[in-house]
Specification:
Number of strands: 4
Largest sheet: 4 strands, antiparallel
Helix content: 25-40%
Radius of gyration: 13 Å
Structural class: alpha+beta
Shape: globular
Strand order of the largest sheet: 1-2-4-3
Number of helices: 3
């Protein structure tokens, strides 16, 4: 059963609780800056574990000292859903332990 897309109002309300996350087109995105490449790689692995737990996966880009994410829900026709906001919240909670800003 497909997941229902959120209204623009619901997406904006959800993003209001996720500092640094924003809507870009049909996806929510965030870029974290970290103190080192090792810290960025460690955050990427932590995010991968969270994604597997939730069975919901973002596009990740690992840079020298950055991790960029972009996510939407394929089952909802590429729209933003509660699954995306939930994934973002879990990542946001994990990121500080890696020194992410």
């Amino acid at each position: 059963m497909p997941t229902e897309p959120l209204s623009a109002r619901d997406v904006e309300a959800g993003l209001g609780e996720l500092p640094g996350w924003r809507l870009e087109g049909d996806r929510i995105t965030r870029t974290y800056r970290l103190p080192s490449h090792f810290a960025a790689a460690a955050l990427t692995v932590h995010i991968a574990r969270i994604q597997d737990e939730l069975n919901h996966h973002a596009d990740l880009t690992l840079g020298y000292d950055t991790v960029a994410l972009s996510v939407h829900t394929h089952d909802a026709g590429g729209a933003v859903t509660k699954k995306d906001l939930g994934l973002a919240a879990r990542i946001e909670a994990a990121a500080p332990a890696h020194g992410a800003e």
